[in-house]
Predict the 3D structure of the following.
Amino acid sequence: MGDACGDEPMRRIVLTGFRGTGKTRIGRILSARLNIPFIDTDELIENRTGRSVPDIFHEEGEERFRTIEREVITMLPAADAIISTGGGVVCDPKNMEYLHRDSTVVLLTADIDTIEQRLVQKPRPPLTTLPLHEEIATLMDRRRQNYYASADLCADTSDTSPVQAAEHILALLKSGVSTVSQRNTARAFFRTGRIPPVLLKNLEYILTAPDRDPLTRIMGVAGYPCAHSMSPKLFNALFAHYHLNYYYTWFEDPELDEIIDIARAIDAKGLSVTIPFKQDVIDLVDEVEEHAARSIGAVNTVVFACGTAVGYNTDWLGVRKPLISMKGAKAVLLGAGGVAAAAAYALKDLDMEVTILNRTPGNAQKLAERFGCAWGGLDEFDRIRPDLVVNATPLGMQPDTRSPLKEDQLQENMTVFDLVYTPPVTPLIEAAQAKGCRTILGTEMFIEQAREQFYLFFGIDVPPEKVREFVA
Ligand code: NAP
């Protein structure tokens, strides 16, 4: 990182946020204070096209504007600069890839009334047919997940002058968000987990070394136990690939509230949540995504931004994605636990006719009644003759070598998706392959749910083959 202004920090700093949050004015002040260029992407678009942004919207529509905007973003210099972006830039995953790379993205926020007052003074053509207040509320709500994904740092500009906001951002860039005592508490917390010594050393350096980069942020997997999780390997490889200043580790502790307190204290960007916390975490976050996570009753992803912790479920998307071509199929779901709930939600979302079979039929009944499925005991499999079998029991998970179904119970026209992924080729998958069935490995679920998590954390769309390469 260079240093053009005393001991002020310097790097490529990107400002995101809704119209009227102060990106241009604050950006110009930061640029002057840091003595680095100021770039406004809307201005670049106007210079490139010879037309005003409102004219492009009016004459060619939003889609064309977004295409030009994407071209401009890909050509931004990699050098130190303050870059002010358009309000909708965060919704495009390619933009987010370019804007996050070797940069610090500062999300500017303001309350709706403040934004409305500012926009009334400086009118721009509306983006919808709604009255201004409603338009702001609707668009902010629609884009909120993407704004949060863009944010390395947040600054609320509602009650501050542009100069005050710029001073606040400079202080954050210099020292980071968490205090020395919070970082020392976190250091003690991580020492109690089972993090390998060499990785613990890295983490302690990031947390407490005097010459550490205050902008390196920590994320991790919350579970007990979770030392076996593939997520640290995958996410750290993705951070290196996309040039993100983040470090992913294990938040392994029997007390979930302690994990959440530490994550908040050190301004963690997010957590992947695994057993046994997927249900309990719902009570500890500020908001839960209202559709999937609420219906499934489990959260496996928490995104922290602007002082808010939002819970999501991406497990169901990990089941849904590999089955997208099987809409309307007749499916049997084996198991009625936590992952089975996400799987049932995914299968019903694909309009499948679903029967849940479980060791304890009463548990199958409870789950089936929530999602409108048929149910029964495991011994009822043979009468159903499904197109698709999804295994959501732990049978076959190392060191268990049992299969929930024998080869002679399978038909060659069946698709068999085993959600167990340790080992990748389970006894059930072996039996299905021997029978000539189409098979889908549990690693596919892991890959797809992890891609969705990465999108929630950073707004970047990782190609599945990249994830496959990094988990291999
Ligand atoms: P869970 O909540 O403990 O539920 C386990 C389910 O399996 C219950 O319905 C249980 O039946 C049944 N079951 C347990 N032992 C059994 C046995 N010996 N024979 C027959 N049925 C048995 O577990 P979960 O969180 O849903 O996880 C299930 C599996 O999903 C895990 O073991 C893991 O391998 C896999 N998983 C995969 C991914 C991925 O990304 N691919 C992610 C998470 C989990 P009862 O109701 O009778 O107890």
User: Anything to note?
Assistant: Residues 1-10 have pLDDT under 50 and may be disordered. Residues 275, 318, 335-340, 358-360, 363, 392-395, 397, 419-421, 442, 445-446, 449 surround NAP (CB under 6 Å).
